[in-house]
Every structure is written in C-alpha cells, then in structure tokens.
Amino acid sequence: MITLKNKIIIAIDGYSSCGKSTLAKSLAKELNYAYVDTGAMYRAVTLFCMKNDLIKNRVADTIEIERILEKINITFKFNPANQRNETYLNNENIEDKIRTIEVSDNVSIISKIATVRKKMVILQKEMGKNKGLVMDGRDIGTVVFPEAELKFFMTADPYVRASRRHKELLDNGDNNSFEVVFENVKQRDYLDENREESPLKKAPDSIILDNTNVTQEEQLKRVIDIINDRFGD
C-alpha cells in the first residue's frame, strides 16, 4: 500500500475498453482511496432510459429525460463477497445489467445530453470535495477535476480494445460477435470525440498511457512509480 503525505485526486480519462476502471480500482486499493466509475454512472442513466422507453431508433427523448433526471439516484457499494464495487440505480444492483452490448450501444447517445452531463458532473465534484479519490471517465481531467494533482489519458489500438471487450462479454455470457463489438468500439470513439458537450480529449498536463502491448501489472507498476516519484516522501 502507498502512503502519501497529502491526499490527492487522480483523474483517469481515455477511450472505451482501455482498462481505465481496472487501473483506477487497483490504484484506489493501493492508496486506500475512494474509487468512482463515472462510466457506470452514465450507463446507469442509459439503462434507466432504456427501461422507460426513452430511446427510440437511436434518438433520445431529451425533454422527458431532463424531466425525470431528479428521479435517478446512483450509488456505489463495495461487495465483500466478490471484492468489487457495484453500481446501484434507485437501490437496485445493476452492475451486470449496465455491462451489456445493448447499453454500450446507447450510452454515447445519453452521455452527450448537456443536462445529463451537468447533473453527473455536479455529483462527481461532490464526491471529490475531500480528495483522496481516483476517478475514471471521459472528461475527469478536463471538466470535472481540471485541478487534479495527477492526470492520466489511456489509449490502445481499437482492435486490441475490441478483443478485450469481446472476451469480457463472452465471459459474462454475452455471445455477440467480435465484429459487432469492434464496430461498437469505433462508433463510441467517434461519438465521444465529436459530441458538443465535454468531448473526449487529452488534458494538456496528463500523462499518456498506451497499453496496446502492456499488461495490467506492468501498467500499474509504471503508474505507482510515477506517484512515488511525484508525491512520495
């Protein structure tokens, strides 16, 4: 476990299926920090919209979504049985439900809505008011915590990312083809980079982590070394 003299905020941004959450969880554990998966927050809103028939033909009913936003309550709870943080939507455990390809296909449609992003950013800023936090997403270092003491931007070859995502889906019983997953990854990249509200981009002071040919263990070691060099005693 790493012990730092002062608590900091670590922002991790980057493309889908780059292992942002895996790295963020590992870092939070090493530092004994809180961890927030902002992607899960947008997926939770997306699932709510799908359940309430607010997305039709890839078009969101933004007026109705804005009206019902206050009815959405998202929390995270640590499950000691499986040693993971799980996402709750209005007190229902939806961790597995938000990881499907169907939610992935629709999350960029919902996450580009300005009022949704503003609502999520307010919640995220509140979570980090006492620092001691690792947060991953698409706009953490640029919008949510531009003042974060340490920022990373994660990337990897799209084909490699799709392969990882496809394996994850297969392990969870989702039998979508690799071609479907690959197209989803490319589509999400385009939508994330080109949305009007808080597009995905690298903060000028962030450190790039390209893990196309790097293991999770190697990447974690590199990040820990950076933290120790910058903030260690």
Largest sheet: 5 strands, parallel
CA-to-CA gap between the ends?
A: 14 Å
Q: Work out the strand percent.
A: 15-25%
Rg over alpha carbons: 17 Å
Shape: globular
For the largest beta sheet, what order do the strands appear in spatially?
Answer: 2-8-1-9-10
As for the number of domains, it is: 1
Structure summary, number of beta strands = 10
Summarize this entry quickly.
The protein has 233 residues and is α/β, with parallel strands linked by helices. It has helices at residues 20-31, 38-51, 62-68, 101-111, 114-127, 140-144, 158-171, 178-194, 216-231; strands at residues 9-14, 34-37, 55-56, 59-60, 74-79, 84-89, 92-93, 133-137, 150-155, 207-210. A five-stranded parallel sheet has the order 2-8-1-9-10. Strands 5-6-7 form a three-stranded antiparallel sheet, with helices on one face.
Textual characterization of the structure:
A 5-stranded parallel sheet has the order 2-8-1-9-10. It has one domain: Rossmann fold. Helices cover 47% and strands 18% of the residues. The protein has 233 residues and is α/β, with parallel strands linked by helices. α1 packs across α9. It is built from 9 helices and 10 strands.
Set out the fold topology.
Blueprint: E1 9-14, H1 20-31, E2 34-37, H2 38-51, E3 55-56, E4 59-60, H3 62-68, E5 74-79, E6 84-89, E7 92-93, H4 101-111, H5 114-127, E8 133-137, H6 140-144, E9 150-155, H7 158-171, H8 178-194, E10 207-210, H9 216-231
Parallel strand pairs: 1-8, 1-9, 2-8, 9-10
Antiparallel strand pairs: 3-4, 5-6, 6-7
